[in-house]
Amino acid sequence: MWLEGNQLTGTIPSFAANTALHYLDLSINQLTGTIPSFEANTALRYLYLDGNQLTGPIPSFAANTALQGLGLGSNKLTGTIPSFEANTALTKLFLTWNKLTGPIPSFAANTALQKLYLNLNRLTGPIPSFAANTALQELDLSENELTGRIPSFAANTALQKLDLDSNKLTGVQSWCADTPDRPLGCYVDVCSLRSRTFLHESAHSLRGGNSTAVLK
Prior knowledge:
By secondary structure, the chain is mainly beta. The protein contains two helices and 17 strands.
């Protein structure tokens, strides 16, 4: 079901009766209220609710073991990031530009994960290890309140984008070296650790839709 980019208002209804639903895109509307439970939608593979005015916590998606893509960015979600350990098929997770707090949970069980965007939140604590996420291509943790040393990403040989800007991190690891298989340009953001204002593409454009830029 594709209803993105309209002027839909009100709350998101229950889709519990739609057990065969596998794709739902309600992004870039004016929807309010909390995210309903999708536990009954065990066939759900893609859910995009980004670019609305949704509030409250992120519900559990532990029952949605077929889930591959989840976009909840550019809302007003609060609370901590729930565990996605049960979502072993997950390849894309966009939680950009909310009001999420607490630590970054482990994604070690999500070995298929390719893109993870947690930037523009209020996350704290250290960066967990992503050594198990060998398929990871893009990781954006910028503009949070993360502390501690930058972990090694030596095992993440598929990594093309790494952005850790505007945190409270220390240390620059040896993988910032310019090598044939890892050009420095891919890592300039983390190697410089500079503060900056930059243009963020919405989660919608990141997953291949029409380009929508959001300036913080």
